[in-house]
Design a protein that fits this description.
The protein has 194 residues and is mostly helical. It has a domain of 115 residues. 84% of the residues lie in helices and 0% in strands. The protein is built from 8 helices and no strands.
């Protein structure tokens, strides 16, 4: 049971941290893109503005990479955006692998508890015979409790793991769309509103 309890605590911590870290207004601030266009029109996209943009949010980091390389042409802009994008995605997916591992191993830990409980039951039968139902019930109860505990941790962990993976995928698609718009606008192939 102790490993299952530790997995439960770790899963709750990861779920709480991911809810906090993956808030939409933190990843994709609504005012960021209009702010970039305003600074661009006013000619205020200097090194300090790009540094501030890079630190503001994951979308800001991607946009700053594209803006910093806008004078090198479309291909270099795209490459720099992709490089920063990979780093951003890695950061957005932080702890999701651990949460998926917890979802996978806790049923196995519960099964291990079941096996240990059944071994105790058979050991008790060997020592005392089948005459004392309390001994048998205790071992069977231990076996079932560990299985239930493992599943109780695994099911929510798996649900939140899938939810956060989907959320990250959605954010990545939105960031790609904004980055492509930026490339097209800066290279003169699209209007700012497009």
């Amino acid at each position: 049971m102790l490993p299952i309890v530790l997995c439960s605590i770790a899963a709750m911590g990861i779920i709480g941290e991911r809810f906090w870290s993956l808030r939409k207004n933190k990843i994709l601030p609504a005012a960021l893109v209009p702010q970039i266009w305003k600074l661009s029109r006013e000619g205020k996209l200097d090194a300090a503005a790009l540094r501030s943009l890079k630190m503001s949010s994951p979308l800001g980091a991607i946009m700053a990479a594209g803006l910093a390389n806008s004078h090198h042409g479309r291909d270099i802009m795209r490459t720099s955006i992709e490089e920063v994008g990979r780093q951003v995605v890695h950061e957005l997916e932080r702890f999701l692998n651990t949460l998926g591992t917890i979802a996978s191993i806790t049923p196995l830990l519960g099964l291990l508890g079941t096996v240990v409980g059944m071994i105790k039951v058979f050991s008790a039968i060997m020592q005392h015979g089948v005459g004392d139902p309390a001994i048998l019930a205790g071992g069977i109860s231990e076996a079932l409790i560990t299985t239930a505990a493992g599943l109780t941790v695994a099911i929510p962990s798996l649900i939140f793991h899938r939810y956060f993976e989907r959320l990250v995928d959605e954010y990545v698609l939105n960031m790609e769309d904004e980055a492509l718009k930026l490339i097209d606008v800066l290279q003169g192939e699209r209007e700012e509103n497009g």
